[in-house]
Amino acid sequence: MVEADRVLQPLQETENSIAKLGEYENSAELASAVEETWRAVDRSLRLLLRTDPAAPDDLRLAALSPAELPFERLVLALRQRDLISLQLAGRVHELQQAAERARTGAVRAADADQARAVVDQLRAEVQAAAGAAKPVVEVAHQAVEAGRVEEPARMVPLPRRHSIRRVLLLPIVLVILAIMFVWGVTRDSPMDRAVTAFRSNRLAQAEEQFREIAEDDPDNVDARLYLARIYRRTNRPEDAARMLREAAAIAPNDDDVERELGWFFLDRNQPRSAAAHFRKAMELNPDDNANLIGLITSLRRLGDPEAERLLAQAPPDVRAAFTTTR
Question: Does residue 138 register a pLDDT over 60?
């Protein structure tokens, strides 16, 4: 059973910073609140894996160490064990990117909303998992009392001795409320659906969905980066360049933007420009192996011996990436 109190303790300890997400007075306060919230969320996710008695020993032992279990592998492990929903996995990934932006001074107002949504959903999912071994009626009743369903909780009078129909009806209502709660927690967002379409190679559908997201949210960098990838894959470099210009204007110090610019220039057979963008991406986020993979790839295209030096010193995951074609 999930130890909810232990898993959620980092969030409890960071309540002041989480509260600042709705009360910040300037961008510096917002950036600090987003970073602190992200660190608490990351710690809670690691505790969630660490306290899973069914997880393999190697995962549990590495769970609390970002060096041994990087964030991407942590989320993958949690998803494989069905400890978090697909929606929450996508949201924590977006929060990680927001925290990276906050460290470079490129924090956005929408990051506060994203951080609060992650905290709320993480709490809800952990608490739901902690109650999974209890009777469903008890879980539903606790969800109602905690306000985790859309319908407000109401006082239910004790049934009269002969009110058999009421006695039978109450559990049915509570089960329905529990189902509504679970559906509300796990349903996919438009971004989730667009990413799924992209990963399934349904590019026309993904393009339409990402376009709608970008139009509705002028500050959504991720939608523009996905559009740029789609345009690169479908041989529309002018459209890809336009999306990347928009993304760079929104987040000028975002390593994801720099990395995507690197692949754009590499596709255009301009490895020197690509290497410059990959190098900047590494400066902004040296812990993301994708940035190092891009830099090594571009340096190899240039015939620069630095590529092999970097590869020899790279983590195993990076070396393994060069055994297959990107």
Answer: no
